Amino acid sequence: ETIPLEMHKVRIVQKLTLLPIEDRLKAMDDAGNNTFLLQNCDVFMDMLTDSGVNAMSDQQLAAMMIADDSYAGSATYTRLEAKLRELFGMHYILPTHQGRACENILAQTFVKPGTIVPMNYHFTTTKAHITLNGGVIEELVKKEGLEVTSDLPFKGDIDTEALEALARKEGADKIAFVRMEAGTNLIGGQPISLANLADVRRVCDKYGLILVFDASLLADNLYFMKEREDSCKDLSIREITRRVADLCDIIYFSARKLGCVRGGGICIRDEGLYKRMRGLVPLYEGFLTYGGMSVREIEALTVGLEETMDEDMINQGPQFIAYMVSELLKRGVPVITPAGGLGCHIDAMRFLDHIPQAEYRAGALASACYIASGVRGMERGTLSEQRNPDGTEVFSNMELLRLALPRRVFTRSQIDYAVDRIDWLYQNRKMIDGLVFVEEPEILRFFYGRLKPV
Ligand code: F0G
């Protein structure tokens, strides 16, 4: 077993408070048992997400000071554009305010009523944008990817035979684009392999389909390619990045994850595709040379992208996650294996097998975990799904409590604290009840819905 080692030192800190359990119970009650509605001042370890909360480096902060403020044509933007061209080898860039803004632009441009978007697996905002534009998604992750415990190195891989069958049946007219997601978020931050992406490219070439790559979680995925895929062992991270990019037509990303800042972007190989999307940027985001990001964020992003090419930087998330997963396994707590990126994923399906799935096992676990520990995680299960048009529930394949590990934020002793409290909760799991909605929003209900114990 490997002990994770911080390859950086701490130079700025933020004080944390650990409220007494009675206060945590009240805070959770006030938040309608939804961890999104907690106040951060009531949280000890915020493991809700790794989005926009990764620690920035001294180099990133320094770069923010030289940002060139200008609505149009700032030197700051030119530096970002040059870095993206260098890393991905795509000439055309559209900046956005975050990842879902890219999804809005892609969906508005390519998704028409009745079209299909095949993908390895959906992400919440991706699916919402595609559905909003009248499209449907087709999830074709290999069925082994949905097995909660396994030792498969690339559980995010798509079933290319199923993809080819769909392409043959529906053809290029009905398929808006094929989407591959790095570090597949909703199935536990599980990576895709370079070999699988190459197979997808072959199918896309054969049937004339556009390949869109969601690179939000690329950093973890690059690390896993280097660690787990023979063909990548002798390549640098920069070379692997380029091999990935060379297979895609369009790459988009949330810079809240990739680059550890805020913002996002779409990189496009072909001028024609670029021109079809370009007009939406000034409409929804901001002018073409800032796209809703501040110039300071853009400077820090350029540096953050370069730092992503450093193996000692991108190994931090996966190594700390692997440690947490192995400590929980030792104590018998059900977790997703193998350890992936993004965070540690607790299997609420098994953890709370006394609660019916209709009573939101993962949501109930997220609420109980906060009360027991002050650790805030995120529900990734049925609550994060949208109901069918007829009002029936869409039961998620997996019921997960995601405990994200924002990069370079938590120390090993904090992880040990979380493990200890989760172990205690597992020993006492029968006292956890299911949840029922008190207030249920129609779109993305998990963000601000309120629930109470059954
Ligand atoms: N794609 C993936 C794979 C994501 O994980 C996210 C965000 C997005 C797109 C949307 O990007 O938030 O910048 O608009 N994931 C966050 C999370 C919200 O907590 O996992 P965004």
Rg over CA atoms, rounded to whole Å, is: 21 Å
CATH topology heading of the largest domain = Aspartate Aminotransferase, domain 2
* Attached small molecules: ligand F0G
Largest sheet: 5 strands, mixed
Q: How many strand segments? A: 14
Describe what this molecule looks like in 3D:
Helix content is 41%, strand content 13%. Strands 2-8-7-6-5 form a 5-stranded mixed sheet, with helices on both faces. It is an alpha/beta fold and 454 residues long. The protein binds ligand F0G.
Properties at a glance:
454 residues, alpha/beta, Aspartate Aminotransferase, domain 1, Aspartate Aminotransferase, domain 2, 2 domains, 5-stranded mixed sheet, 3-stranded antiparallel sheet, 18 helices, 41% helix, globular, binds ligand F0G, PyrdxlP-dep_Trfase_small, PyrdxlP-dep_Trfase_major
Short description:
The chain has 454 residues and is α/β, with parallel strands linked by helices. It has helices at residues 21-30, 58-64, 75-88, 99-110, 124-132, 160-174, 194-207, 218-228, 237-246, 271-278, 280-284, 295-307, 311-314, 316-330, 348-351, 361-373, 412-427, 445-448; strands at 45-46, 92-96, 116-119, 136-139, 178-181, 211-214, 250-254, 264-268, 343-347, 375-376, 378-380, 400-404, 435-439, 450-453.
